[in-house]
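Cont'd.
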Amino acid sequence: MSLSQGRPTMRDVASTAGVSLKTVSRVVNGEPGVRPAVAARVQDAIATLGFRRNDLARSLRHGRRSSTIGLVIGDLANPFYSAIARAVEAVAHRHQTMLISGSSEEDPDREREIVNALLERRVDGLIVVPAGNDHRYLNDEADNGTPAVFVDRPPGNLAADVILIDNAGGAVLAVDHLLRQGHVRIGVVGDAMSLYTTAQRIKGYRAAMTAAGHLVDEGLLELGSHNADAAEAATRRLLERSAPPTAIFSTNNRNTVGALRAVLAEAPGTALVGFDDFELADLLARPVTVVRHDPAEMGSLAAELLFRRIDGDTRPPRRKLIRTELVQRGSGEVRPPGERGPRAKRT
Amino acid sequence: MSLSQGRPTMRDVASTAGVSLKTVSRVVNGEPGVRPAVAARVQDAIATLGFRRNDLARSLRHGRRSSTIGLVIGDLANPFYSAIARAVEAVAHRHQTMLISGSSEEDPDREREIVNALLERRVDGLIVVPAGNDHRYLNDEADNGTPAVFVDRPPGNLAADVILIDNAGGAVLAVDHLLRQGHVRIGVVGDAMSLYTTAQRIKGYRAAMTAAGHLVDEGLLELGSHNADAAEAATRRLLERSAPPTAIFSTNNRNTVGALRAVLAEAPGTALVGFDDFELADLLARPVTVVRHDPAEMGSLAAELLFRRIDGDTRPPRRKLIRTELVQRGSGEVRPPGERGPRAKRT
DNA sequence: TTGAAAGCGCTAACAT
DNA sequence: ATGTTAGCGCTTTCAA
């Protein structure tokens, strides 16, 4: 009874147990029609050989379904993304599916490279936080049965499911709050306008200012900061103006951290409201008022939607909005210099 | 020329281009020996059909190497773990390998379930932050060519590579620092002793106390807190004692956050040093002195070691230690009440 | 209840 | 330079 080298296969188990290949397959997959005595012999052989079914071969033969899904995000170590990843993974686990993930580092080429690798590995579906803005290449895939759901930013040139934050609405929440404290010169610190989320949040800022009857001073917009250090420098530039802003709206968590450092160092009286909540925001030297939303909810919704597509749902693409709320912690509840008494009424 | 249904295969490309299967394979894999004209025809067919090589079939035939590795960690959303995951992913990417990850939620059964799924998917190797304490079942796997590297905690009953933090040494750093400020009643807030890292850090605490000539007051050890809320309650219990500690050593990041909340609320004069650094620790109301180490370094080292094993390195298992350092931010540089002047000298 | 044969999509080994 | 054949480890189909 010569067994093959290396890792044992069903054939090895079969010859060890003295049964046919198919009987082993039946036992391994819990199919009925095997006498208990025979099944026991097979189980013994499996145990002694240390056999483990090869899932690659299984899904090759069995066709559709590798029981894996792919996730493409910016950076697995960023809390915003890792919250999404964790939520996706939890849903996948419930569907007996494993998660393969890759960090695009916000690079469109890298994104496509990862998507390709995932598709070659025949994932059952994709969840993508897009870095690029052209996803036509995924059209064929949808036809071939590999659905994709987009998160945080919409796909380019492709009709697909997408989960978005209510970016403009959240920004209005923040700016309205500052306006109600009596602020008018409200500076903005944020990432590049080329990012969908930045653009939407700036849109909300403009809408709120305009609705309150204020002209937007373009000099108060300091955009393009990808990290906290750049945001800190940008905020300092704002605070060094001859007529500095009395309040600052930072458009994401990195920018909020940078803005906070600059404000604490340069002009502690400046009000600050940030988009995105983050851990320990309440324990900071200046507890930070933020526009909160739930990244985990985005991940869960995206994954649930994806599995519905995998299970054959062919209804038109859906767009879901994650709602936002204002969390007051102190940094946003600061009046402009010279104002006293109760909150100013808007006219 | 009837093409098969669904996703196009090499066979489909071959018949579309009017060449043989093998020629397509040559073009797809960039093998030499195909005339440019023919290659171009094949490329055209690939483009029009939207063909994508099936990596499952490829690695099935080609034997060894699925170009995936598996990662089992406690919780993908915990910054400590996500830093590891990111570092592992970066190294994997350099080796043209994708990362499949699963969260064990610190549950040994779940850990084993995930490891099984990964092994059935024929990952080339495993990186495990173990929740369980018996890994004999991985012995067969090592024989079958699937190496495993353990991170943060050693494997149970298995000789394998492992990357550990210098837990005891880091704890000594923290406690010595507090002793030098003149503290003697140093309380400890931490997770369960059943966790390897907690046990090692407590060992360091005891060693430092003993070396300084102090008896350890067992009543000052409040262990078993898995999260910040439990740690906060535990710290309050310490601070409510008739002779409360004048300093606290918290044995991980969750416990540090809880301890900080309790200290700020109950006894702001209490010194605090925590194990594990965390983001914004310097911007807190009370900037926290910590024992810092580099989780990303653990991930990188583990991944590099794993790929060496995958590439056939059969030297004896290695154990690597990640070094720690003390970062002074203020919370640990507080004298006990009643002491004045320069730092007390130890005798 | 059990088994033999065919084949999933690809690559290795050998023709031509 | 190109094609044919066999077979990776499994499941499906059909037969005994």
